[in-house]
């Protein structure tokens, strides 16, 4: 899917790591949430509450998920992050993403 319809966009940006990662929150009619964002090269560690689906729309990174080694992910690929966990990304080149918060 290349676009979303019937969503509410939260105007205020989500800004992480001194502005190296930015996203906007989308809220769907059923209450589900996604963020659309952009990451600059660097290494970043996140903590999750809910499970997440990270879709890499363009770019390239390596991700280390709980109990896993590093894996390469590039545009057109995705990975799942378990709830209540930590994951680290090494972003190689500017990367566009969509994060879906799963419940």
UniProtKB/TrEMBL annotation:
CDD domains recorded for this chain?
cupin_PpnP-like (cd20296)
Name the keywords, alphabetized. Glycosyltransferase, Transferase
Q: Is-annotated flag, keyword Transferase?
A: yes
**Is DNA damage tagged as a keyword?**
no
Q: What are this entry's molecular-function GO terms? A: purine-nucleoside phosphorylase activity; pyrimidine-nucleoside phosphorylase activity
Highest rank taxon of the organism: Bacteria
For this protein, what reaction is catalysed? cytidine + phosphate = cytosine + alpha-D-ribose 1-phosphate; thymidine + phosphate = 2-deoxy-alpha-D-ribose 1-phosphate + thymine; uridine + phosphate = alpha-D-ribose 1-phosphate + uracil; a purine D-ribonucleoside + phosphate = a purine nucleobase + alpha-D-ribose 1-phosphate
Q: What is its EC number?
A: 2.4.2.1, 2.4.2.2
Question: Cross-referenced InterPro entries, in alphabetical order?
Answer: Ppnp (IPR009664), RmlC-like_jellyroll (IPR014710), RmlC_Cupin_sf (IPR011051)
- Give GO cellular component annotations, separated by semicolons: cytosol
Please state the span of the N-terminal signal peptide per the UniProt entry: none
Tell me, what does this protein do in biology? Catalyzes the phosphorolysis of diverse nucleosides, yielding D-ribose 1-phosphate and the respective free bases. Can use uridine, adenosine, guanosine, cytidine, thymidine, inosine and xanthosine as substrates. Also catalyzes the reverse reactions.
Q: Which PANTHER family match?
A: PYRIMIDINE/PURINE NUCLEOSIDE PHOSPHORYLASE, PYRIMIDINE_PURINE NUCLEOSIDE PHOSPHORYLASE
The family this protein is said to belong to: Belongs to the nucleoside phosphorylase PpnP family.
Q: What's the protein name?
A: Pyrimidine/purine nucleoside phosphorylase
- Taxonomic lineage of the native organism: Bacteria, Pseudomonadati, Pseudomonadota, Betaproteobacteria, Nitrosomonadales
């Amino acid at each position: 899917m290349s676009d979303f319809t019937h969503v509410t966009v939260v105007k205020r940006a989500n800004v992480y790591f001194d502005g190296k990662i930015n996203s906007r929150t989308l809220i769907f009619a059923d209450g589900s949430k996604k963020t659309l964002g952009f990451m600059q090269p660097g290494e970043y560690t996140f903590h999750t509450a809910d499970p997440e689906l990270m879709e890499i729309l363009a770019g390239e990174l390596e991700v280390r998920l709980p109990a896993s080694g590093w894996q390469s992910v590039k545009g057109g690929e995705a990975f799942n992050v378990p709830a209540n966990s930590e994951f680290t990304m090494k972003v190689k080149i500017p990367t566009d993403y969509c994060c879906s918060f799963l419940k």
